[in-house]
Amino acid sequence: MDGTSFVDGNELAGAFRELFAVDVTSARGTCVACGQAGEVARAHVYDRGPGLVARCPGCDAVLMRLVRATDRAWLDLRGVTCLEFALP
């Protein structure tokens, strides 16, 4: 290490609470596969399986997956390079 100090991941709690308290469908995402950017609401969502799968409207690559159980949820965002949120 270069001597830079750090804190643990709990430091992200406040920032994430602010981001995930907004309507995520209005966030802009960028597809890893084709680079198309657009609102999450524009994704093609498939809901026939055990969870939700969002695909890019441009190239049909998987953007994200969401699976819920009674006491937890799994969110996979590996198909999105970033999500851009407008803050209030």
How would you briefly describe this protein structure?
The chain is mainly beta.
**Which regions have little confidence, pLDDT < 50, spanning 5+ residues?**
none
Distance between the termini: 37 Å
What share of residues is helical? Answer: under 10%
- Shape assignment: globular
Task: List the domain count as a whole number.
Answer: 1
**Beta-strand segment tally:** 7
* Multimerization status: single chain
Average residue pLDDT: 90
Q: What's the number of helices?
A: 1
Helix and strand composition category: mainly beta
Which sequence of SSEs, written as H and E, runs from N to C? HEEEEEEE
Q: Mind describing the biggest β-sheet?
A: 4 strands, antiparallel
Rg, Å, rounded: 15 Å
Strand residue content: 25-35%
Query: Major sheet: order of its strands?
Result: 3-4-5-6
Organism: Luedemannella helvata
InterPro entries: DUF6510
Protein name: DUF6510 family protein
Task: Quickly list its features.
88 residues; mainly beta; 4-stranded antiparallel sheet; 3-stranded antiparallel sheet; globular
Could you characterize the architecture of this molecule?
The strands form two sheets. Strands 3-4-5-6 form a four-stranded antiparallel sheet, with no helix packed on it. The chain is globular and about 45 Å long. It has one helix and seven strands; from the N terminus they run αβββββββ. 8% of the residues lie in helices and 34% in strands. It has one helix at 13-19; strands spanning 28-31, 37-39, 44-46, 52-55, 62-68, 73-76, 80-84. By secondary structure, the protein is mainly beta. The chain has one domain (9-84). A hairpin with a 5-residue loop joins strand 1 and strand 2 (37-39). This is DUF6510 family protein. Pfam families: DUF6510.
